[in-house]
Design brief:
alpha/beta; Rossmann fold; 2 domains; five-stranded parallel β-sheet; 8 helices; 28% helix
Amino acid sequence: MRDRLLIFSCRAAKELALKIAGVLRKDLAEHELIQFSNENMKVRILENVREADVFIVQTSAPPLHDGIMEMLIMIDAVKHASARRVTAVLPYYPYTRSDKKDEPRISITARLMADLIAAAGADRVLTMNLHSPQIQGFFKIPADQLDAAPIMCDYLRRKDLANTVIVAPDAGSAKRAGSYATRLDLPLAILDKRRSADDESPEVLAVIGDVEGKTALVIDDEISTGGSLQETVSALRRLGAEKVYAACVHPVLCGKAIDRINDATLEELIITDTVPTGDKRNHLRNLTVLSVSQLFAEAIRSINQGESVSSLFR
C-alpha cells in the first residue's frame, strides 16, 4: 500500500501546485504562513503529516529570497512534524545560472541552494530543465530532473515544420536544441554568441548552419531580461530567416523583457508555467503557455508509488 500523499504549496507556486493537485485528484494540504513586521516568517502546518509522503511545491519568482526562506522553513516544519519523506518540488530551480566558479572569489550559489535544501530536511528534489546538467550532481540527496521537451514537441508537431530549422542561441545551448532537432527530425543551426559582461547584452558573431529562407525555431531553457532573445531574433532576420519562433521553458521575464520580446516581433513565443507570469502574459504578443502540471503530477505519483520516473524523460 502506498504512503499517504500530501501536497503543500508555497506562495510563488500556488497556481501550478493547484493544477498538479487537480491532476492527482487531491486538495492542497493546509498550512498557515505568518510574516512578522521584522520580516521573520513562521509556518504552521494545519493537518497531520505524521508518516506521510509530503511534496512541497515552490518555484523561483519575486520576491525570490522570501520564497527561498518560505520553502526552507516549510520543509523544516513538515520534517519536524514527523513526515516520513519530504520532496522539494522546484519547477524552476533558484540560482540556476550560478553553477560554476568562472570568476575569482565568487560563490557557486546553485550548489549552496542544494546544500540548504538538504540541510532543511528534504529527502529528495524534483525539478525541471536545470540551466546546466552538473547542477544535478550538487545534491547529496536524490534529485530528479524532468524535461519539458516532450510537452513542447507534442505542441510543435501540430504545426507545419516543413521548412523549419531548430536554432541554438549559443554553443552552450547546442545539446539542448539538438535534442529537439532529433525529436522533430529537423536540421540544427548554432549561433556563435558572446557576452562581454554581466549586463546580459550578447553579440551574435556568426552562425553554424543554414537559416536563410527558413522558419527558425529558437530553443532555450529560460528568458530572463529578453536581451539574448531579442539579439538572437535580430541576428536570424539579418541572416535571412523568413519567420522566427521561440520556445523557452522558464519565463522569468524580468527587467525590460516584455518590451524587448515584443520588439523582436516573434511569430510565436512558446513557454511553460514553471514560473508564474501573472499579468505579464497579457502584455506579450503571440504567446502560448503550455502547462507542465501533468508531467509533475505523473512524477509525483511515480515517486509516491515507488515506480521509476525514467519513462517521463523520453
